[in-house]
Amino acid sequence: MERYQQRRFAILRAALGALILTSALPQIAVAQDAPKKVVLRFACDFTPPPHPAGMALAYFHDRLPQVIPGSEARIYYSGALYTIPEAFEAMRQGNLEMTWMQMGKAAPVDPWMMSIVGPGILTTVGAVDNLEKTKTFQMLVDRLAKNQAIKVFGAGHMSFGMGVGGKKRYVKPDDFSGRKVRSMGPVENASLEAWKANPVVMGFGEVPTALESGVIDGLMTSIGGWLSVREQAPYYTTGGAGVFTGDYYMVSASRRWWDRLTPATQKALEGLIAETIKTQKEYNWCVDKLTYDKYGTKDPSKPGVYWLSPQEVSAMTSAVGNASSDYVKTKVPAEAKPWVDTFTKEGRELSKSNPAGSSWIEKIDCSKYASVILIK
């Protein structure tokens, strides 16, 4: 009898163990499929909130531990960690996890990056929003992945109303003559020189002091960037998306870091990055719109945001002509030169097929961001 009870107990214990193991299998599978905690550095060359891109990075920072518990994003604004060429090189070597960089500023490391910049190409909100669909952008994405060990997630743009701010109004080519104007990169130098300005390349973090001291008279920037220097540069002029400059930023990661992440972690991060880019586009549009609602002026002699008329835009772009693309062709390898023309053609076709007012971005109800976007 005792031997029977012992055997029965052994059978029950084995059955219970099997039951526990079976019930634990879903949890084990879930644990294996769950994203792993990450701690990453995210470098950029734009300013913190209230700049719309800065707001988007702050959004990413706050959302990351919600999406992947225990994770942390260390954000470095205004080139605090690296300049763009340095960040590009650091990612390539695996010494930096992520960046949000202006593509043209990476040209000192990879000249091919200049094939997708220049004014007067993507001139509507819808065209800018469709940058990722161009063959030129896709070519660069593939090239960066294969040649530079950099993964590109998408393009996050600075503003749909890029322009020029200053102590005086810049509304026609003659207004630039002899003026020292902060440029965002070498391609913008060509357009500024076509307007007979003296371009000065500098990171945005240096701009307020440079304006105060007279090192520069004005600056190319976004409406969001202008808000942070409005007291030093009370006049801001824009002609709409991409008229003064094409300010295309890519969100990217080092493949040396990314490729070591688990598939579940990669999937979670890709979802958050797509969410952040979309949020930034909404922030951009609403900052532009709400800023114009508050500071817009129809009189160019008065401070504030002045929107160029189509005739004034034509005068500015005609004065530039092919100066930007001609300059780019002198700086890129021979194999990249056809891509400069390809992007110009693609961009102008996108601008034509996405006229003003047709984009989902232009239909956003900005009142939903009233508590987030505070225009001072």
Can you give a write-up of this model?
The chain is of the alpha/beta class and 376 residues long. It has helices at 2-33, 52-67, 84-93, 125-129, 135-147, 186-194, 207-213, 223-227, 255-258, 263-295, 310-320, 323-331, 337-353, and strands at 39-44, 72-76, 98-102, 150-155, 163-166, 180-183, 198-201, 218-221, 235-238, 249-254, 296-297, 304-307. Strands 7-6-8-5-9-12-11 form a seven-stranded mixed sheet. It has a five-stranded mixed sheet with strand order 2-1-3-10-4. Strand 1, helix 2 and strand 2 (72-76) form a beta-alpha-beta unit. Helix 6 runs antiparallel to helix 12.
Label this structure with key terms.
376 residues; 7-stranded mixed sheet; globular; alpha/beta; 5-stranded mixed sheet
Detail the topology: elements first, then pairings.
Blueprint lengths: L1 H32 L5 E6 L7 H16 L4 E5 L7 H10 L4 E5 L22 H5 L5 H13 L2 E6 L7 E4 L13 E4 L2 H9 L3 E4 L5 H7 L4 E4 L1 H5 L7 E4 L10 E6 H4 L4 H33 E2 L6 E4 L2 H11 L2 H9 L5 H17 L23
Parallel strand pairs: 1-2, 1-3, 6-7, 6-8, 9-12, 11-12
Antiparallel strand pairs: 3-10, 4-10, 5-8, 5-9
